[in-house]
Design brief:
Blueprint lengths: L1 E2 L4 H17 L8 E4 L4 H8 L4 E4 L11 H25 L4 E3 L6 H10 L3 E5 L6 H6 L5 E4 L12 E3 L13 H8 L7 E5 L6 H9 L1 H5 L3 E5 L5 H11 L8 E4 L4 H10 L2 E4 L3 H9 L4 E3 L9 H11 L4 E2 L7 H13 L1 H14 L4 H14 L2
Parallel strand pairs: 1-4, 2-3, 4-5, 5-6, 6-7, 8-9, 8-11, 9-10, 11-12, 12-13
Helix pairs in contact: 1-2, 1-15, 3-4, 6-10, 11-14
């Protein structure tokens, strides 16, 4: 039984692990369940496409600031979620629970403690979230993405990286040209803002759009809720002769993402762990823009650990100034050795076998192979 929730960053690694479990034991009858919050809906749809039996439960956040919502979540939502989880554990009797963390994983992980069902945990970031900090106390094994991940006891941790779907390694530039109507007349820059898009990045790109398109061709993942407004504003401001170099898209599903990654000469992205390890796996140079208000500044810490490996450049949100940004990008392309070094170091940093390693550990524990 898998759990995790809040964002796509909790869900996509679970899909990678499930696929590896099926590859390792293709002839075995294994039943997979997912138990977590009923949102985001898109991620639940993706899980259902993997053949999981999905059940949703009540869940609530414990905010690290004063909010009356905390009282409602602590007194009602989380306890209800724990009771619902206990019901499903008694009904399905899973051999093991794999938690990806996030507030949506907490009720099931608490119920597992009461039920005596073993829990494996994966932490994406250098700074663990509150749910994973608590659950780590009784988790049997803790898989981490970065060396020197904070808080966890070393004796229970295994460094594996963040699981990625190996299918994203099979992108093709020609397919990208067909999908996005690329011209390849200029270097391709892929802009990623996470599964929901990033409003700050969207607004900034629109501010510099014409200047940017004079030298580069852009694939811009705007986010499902932002695409309409981004396209409307772009139509107003974009110069006619530059339109063919701008390709906004709401969400990059697996098929489109792998081809977009293959076509990109440089990636501009938030610094979520999932994005970092996907960028690293395909060996692409990148500029990371950490989310300033991420919990525990985990995106900033992720980004600087990746930067220390020589695999990226970082621009903080407060430094997103048009001239500074454009000159930074142009400098990178003018100095080809900088691009090449980032490519090499990204591949060195990558851990494309993460999902398979975790899948093997699960099977060793459950069926003693």
């Amino acid at each position: 039984m898998f759990t995790g929730g809040g964002t796509g960053g909790h869900i996509f690694p679970l899909i990678a692990i499930i696929r590896e479990l099926r590859r390792l034991l293709p002839s075995e009858e294994i039943e997979f369940f997912y138990l977590g919050p009923n949102k985001p809906e898109l991620e639940l749809i993706l899980l259902s496409q993997e053949g999981l039996n999905i059940k949703t439960i009540s869940s609530g956040k414990i905010r690290r600031y004063f909010s009356l919502e905390n009282l409602k979540d602590i007194l009602f939502k989380i306890p209800i979620g724990v009771l619902q989880s206990l019901f499903y554990l008694l009904r399905f009797r899973p051999a093991l629970i794999f938690s990806k963390g996030g507030y949506g994983s907490f009720p099931l992980s608490i119920s597992a403690l009461f039920s005596g069902i073993p829990v494996f945990l994966h932490e994406s970031d250098i700074t663990p979230g509150l749910a994973n900090r608590v659950v780590s106390k009784w988790a049997k094994k803790i898989f981490i993405s970065f060396q020197k991940t904070e808080y966890f006891p070393l004796k229970k941790t295994i460094l594996v990286g963040n699981p990625i779907k190996r299918e994203i390694l099979n992108g093709n530039k020609q397919r990208a040209k067909e999908i996005f109507n690329l011209t390849f007349e200029k270097p391709i820059i892929l802009i990623l803002g996470g599964s929901q898009g990033a409003q700050t990045i969207n607004d900034f790109i629109l501010r510099i759009l014409n200047e940017f398109l004079k030298d580069f061709e852009l694939i811009h993942q705007c986010g499902i809720t932002h695409l309409k407004s981004v396209k409307a504003e772009a139509q107003v401001i974009i110069e006619k002769e530059l339109e063919k170099y701008y390709h906004p898209i709401e969400f990059l599903g697996e098929e489109k993402l792998k081809h977009a990654l293959a076509s990109a000469d440089l990636i501009i992205s938030r610094a979520g762990s999932g994005a970092i390890f996907e960028i690293a796996a395909v060996g692409k140079p990148s500029i990371l823009i950490p989310l300033t208000k991420s919990a525990g500044n985990h995106q900033g810490k992720n980004a600087y650990r990746y930067f220390q490996a020589g695999a990226c450049q970082i621009i903080e949100e407060e430094n997103l100034k048009p001239n500074f940004f454009l000159e930074k990008v142009k400098y990178i392309f003018f100095h080809k050795e900088v691009l090449e070094k980032m490519r090499e170091n990204a591949l060195k940093f990558s851990k494309p076998e993460s999902a398979r390693i975790i899948a093997r550990e699960i099977l060793r524990y459950v069926i003693k192979i």
